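Researcher: Go.
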Amino acid sequence: MSDGRNRNGSARWAALAGLLLAFAGPVHAQIGAPSPPKFPAALDRDTLLGWLRSETDILPERVIAVTPQALTAVVSTFPGGGGQGPRMVVRAEALNAETFARTGALSWHVSLTADCAGRRVKLGDTTGYPERNLLGERRVLRPAEADWRTPEAGTALESALRAACDTGFKGPFAGDGFSTTAPAAGSPVAPQPDRPPPPAKVPQPAKPPQADKAPDKPAPKAPPPAPARAAPAPAKTTSHGAVSVQVGAYSAAAEAQAAMARLPQDRSRSLEQATVGGHAWYRLIVWGFASVQDAQRYCDQRKAAGGACFVRAPDKG
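Model: Structure:
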């Protein structure tokens, strides 16, 4: 009896190694699903998009990889700092019945730290769920790894590394990283800045008389400083009380706003813009906690559900 169980466990172990984001590791036990799951009829763009909307809560622009076995997406990202590389939480959904039968999980998530210079990653616990969208009884499918690993080319894990480290990374449903703007319009816009210089012809300085009128025109340009004062917006995030937590950081404002809209309404939320490594990031902050312990409990609950969260230092002043 025990020999049979060992053989089944070994089979699931081997299957999980090739299917769960190309992460190798043992499956301790199969997770039973309460009802028959639905899988996309095909892996073409339109079919997958329709399936995403009807069966999951994943935004298309968050998807970083699609394989015959699973669809992988980013849950949250944290920019690197203090000698540590960027961190990311990714999740995946099984795309066919065979994958589910072999792994016993319809969805799973894993956190990772990226070493962009070394092109390697270090993985946290891989946690599986019997239902879509990380629901149901969770089980640790593979414990965290102490060593770094170099992802194989063409795997979902390599896509996760590129998404964390390469600003030009493009997922299957997004043309420019995690941006929700049309990718086609984004690429040609970059070369166009070279065209504006021609219109600004220097021959105009030959009109000295108008130089006196010029100062009159700059006067109306004084209003621009007003928008500059809008910058204090981030300051609002520094006055949200003694204790707050950060639950995500996004490279696109639209993504940050969408993530904030998905948060429960029981606590105050806000966005904080910051520039890290020359790139703009939008931090999603939740605040209004009575104590650090209260904030830590909130983070523990989010992490248990596959989200990212850490308690920020109490605001001073």
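Model: Residues 2-165 form a domain with the Lipocalin fold (CATH 2.40.128.710).
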